[in-house]
Amino acid sequence: MERTVKVQEAKTRLSAILADVERGEEVVIARGDVPVARLVPIQEPPDRELGFVPYRVPDSFFEPLPDDELAAWEA
Questions:
Q1: What predicted TM-score, i.e. pTM, was given to this entire model?
Q2: Is the residue at 7 inside a domain?
Q3: CB pairs under 8 A, 24+ apart, for 58-61?
């Protein structure tokens, strides 16, 4: 369901309007009789599966850095 509120009402009742939006209602904010914005609930993105890129970290990744390279990072 969608309802329209004027800017002044939106400013006065913002917390209540946001609560309505959280419950799934859509609210249009109008300046006079001209709609200027629509508040809609945010839809949570689906969970992404880990491992979506076929890559394996080489064992050498976990070896200590050579002293000269380590010194460059610590400088």
A1: 0.58
A2: yes
A3: none
Would you say residue 26 lies in a domain?
Answer: yes
**Do 22 and 41 form a contact (C-beta atoms < 8 A)?**
yes
Residues β-bridged to residue 6: 30
> How many CB atoms within 10 Å of residue 73?
7
Answer for the pair 26, 5: CB distance below 8 angstroms, yes or no: no
pLDDT in tens, the chain (75 residues): 799 999 999 999 999 999 999 999 999 999 999 999 999 999 888 887 777 778 888 998 899 988 999 899 887
Residue 56 backbone dihedrals phi, psi, to 5 degrees: -125, 130
Number of structural domains (the chain) is 1
